Amino acid sequence: MRRVSITSEHKYEVQVGANWKNELAKIEKSHEKILIFAPKKLEKILQLSSKSRVVYLPDGEAQKDFKTLEKLLNVAGRQGIKRDSAIVAIGGGATTDVSGFVAATWLRGIDWYSFPTTIAGSVDAAIGGKTGINSEFGKNTIGSFHSPKKVIVDLSFIKSLSQRDISAGLAEVVKRSEEHTSELQSH
Fold first, then answer.
1. What pLDDT, in 10s, does the model give residues 27-44?
2. For helices 119-126 and 163-186, what crossing angle results, to 10°?
3. Is 107 helix (H, G, I), strand (E, B) or coil?
4. How much is the pTM?
5. In angstroms, rounded to a whole number, what is the distance separating the alpha carbons of residues 176 and 6?
6. What is the Cα–Cα distance from 127 to 9, expressed in whole angstroms?
7. CA distance 98 to 141
8. Mean pLDDT value across residues 57-85
9. What stretch of H or E contains 127?
10. Cα Rg of the chain, angstroms
């Protein structure tokens, strides 16, 4: 397993090659309550039998809207999510965006963990804590910066991707690299 330390508004670790089930068990032991958000397409793959409450979301960008945000915030309220609770995102970039935004806004910010299942999701979750939803005015127009406590990349998810998804993810890596280079040059 490889560990990378990231510094944003706080320091956090990205673990590449970790076992997601083992890491989820550790998180469940360290927080009073856990809410897990994952896209519906992962329901059969995950087969979660944890003490955590699991909420399955629409697939892809469809989950990044006000309707889903309201649903997730209401679930957090009904489940009694408090400061010692956490949110876990298991999915691609859209899942990490909306889950991180719920974590950023619930009680003005609670812990969250990202288990990205795509390359693009890994890059999005690992760099800078960009969270948010879409609006009628565009993609990611509503959001905040709220970095996860930890990013856990289980390579079994990445190995299951189609060639198209791998190519799209690598394009995101190049885009992020170019953005980072431009930021460094402007300072």
1. 999 999 999 999 999 988
2. 30
3. helix
4. 0.91
5. 15
6. 11
7. 12
8. 96
9. none
10. 16
